[in-house]
Amino acid sequence: MPIKGVHRIRKKLADGRIKFYYRTSRTGGVTFWECEGKPLDGKRLPPDFITAYEAACSLERGVSPGSFEQVFQDYQKRSAAYLRMKQKSRDARDKYLNGWLDMSLKKGQRAGSAPLAIFDRKEIVPYIIKHRDATWGHSPSVSGEAMFPLSAFLRWCVGEGKLDKNKAATVPAVYKRPIDKARIWEPEEREAFLSTAQWQVQFFYELEEFVGLRLEDAVTLPLTAIKREHIIIPTGKSRGQNYAIVPLIPPLKSLLDRIEKKRKALKKELKLKAEPLTVLFNSRGLPWTPDGLATSFYRHRDDVLTADDKPTIHHLRKTAAPNMVIQQHRYPDIITDKVLRDMFGWTDDTLAKMKRIYVSDAAVIAALTHK
C-alpha cells in the first residue's frame, strides 16, 4: 500500500535483489529510508521510519517560521540581556534551551518544530515538568538550573509581544527551601531581576549581596568608605561597635570597578561638574533618595516576577548573609569568622548554624556562587 506524502522508488540490483528507496517528494526530495525484498506496509510503519521521515522533512524545509526553534534563533540575535552575557554563560544557556527544543509534546511532536504559541496554553506545564524531570531529574539543582534559561527566554517573548504569559514561572520548583532557612532571593528570582534591570538598580542589588545594608544606609554610603582592601559599612548589630569591615574580595572589587567606570562615563556624558560622592547614584549622576531607589526597584521587580510571594529589599539584605558565608568558603584567608560576626552581629553558635545550613548545601553553593 502506498504511503501518503512519500515517494517510493523500486530498483532492481545487478544480483537480482530488489531495493526500495523512500524520498520526501518525487522531485528534489530527500532520500531518508531504504529496504530490500518487500516494500513497507503503509498501515504498519516502523517507528524509525516515521522518525527518519520527520527529520528529513525538517531538513528539507528548514526551521518553520513562528516555531519555538525559529523564535529561539531570533532571541539569540536580538535579546539585549542574552547578548550582554559572557560567551561561557551564553553557551550554558544555549545548551539548556537546545534541550528544551527536544521536549516531546502530544503524539511525540518535537517542541522545537511546534508553534511558539503552545507556551501560552495551560496544558504546556505538565509537558515542561515531565521533560525537566526526565532529562535533568538526576539532580534537583540541575533541574532548577535548567528552568532558568527557559523562563528567561519566555519572559523575553512576553516582552516582545509574542506570548501573553511566562508559563515557566508557574512550574513548581524542584529544590525546596528548608524550613529553617530565611526567606532570601532565590537564584531564579535573581536571574530574572538582573537580566533586564537598568544599570543603576543592578548596582544596588549586587552591592547589597555583599554588604546587606539598610536602604537608607546604602544610598548614603560615601566613596570614602571604600579603602584599599575593604569597605567600612555602618552597623548597629556588632556588640559595642557601630561599623564593620567588608573585605574587597575579587567579585566585590569587580563590581566596584564597574561602578567607578560608569561614574566617570556618566560625568562625561552628562557634562557634570563633579562626580557623585556616594557609591550608588541614579541615571542623572545624583545620589539616590531612599524613596526614589525603592520605587525603581519595586517597579522592575513587579515587571519581571509574577509569583504572589515576591522578595523585597529586606529579603535582599538577608541574602547577603548566606552569600558572605559561602564567599568565606571560597576566600577563607580574606573573610574571617570575625568579619562575619561583626557584619551580622552573630554569635559563634549562629555562625556555626549558618555554615551548617548553607556551606553544606551544594545546590545553594552552586546557585549563589556561579555569578
Structure commentary:
The chain is mostly helical. Helix content is 51%, strand content 9%. The chain is built from 15 helices and 5 strands. The chain has helices spanning 47-61, 68-78, 80-84, 87-101, 124-136, 140-159, 187-196, 199-211, 215-220, 250-270, 290-304, 313-330, 337-344, 348-359, 362-369; strands at 7-12, 18-23, 31-36, 230-238, 241-247. Helix 4 crosses helix 6 and helix 8 runs antiparallel to helix 10. It is elongated and about 95 Å long.
Proportion in β-strands? 5-15%
Number of helices: 15
Q: Main β-sheet, in a few words?
A: 3 strands, antiparallel
Average pLDDT rating: 84
N- to C-terminal distance: 59 Å
**Order of helix and strand elements from N to C terminus:** EEEHHHHHHHHHEEHHHHHH
Q: pLDDT under 50 segments (min length 5)? A: 361-371
Gyration radius, to the nearest Å? 28 Å
Shape: elongated
Oligomer: single chain
Number of E-state strands:
5
Side by side, the strands of the main sheet go 1-2-3
Residues in helices, as a percent range:
40-55%
Q: Topology of this protein?
A:
Elements: E1 7-12, E2 18-23, E3 31-36, H1 47-61, H2 68-78, H3 80-84, H4 87-101, H5 124-136, H6 140-159, H7 187-196, H8 199-211, H9 215-220, E4 230-238, E5 241-247, H10 250-270, H11 290-304, H12 313-330, H13 337-344, H14 348-359, H15 362-369
Antiparallel strand pairs: 1-2, 2-3, 4-5
Helix pairs in contact: 4-6, 5-6, 6-7, 6-15, 8-10, 8-12, 12-14
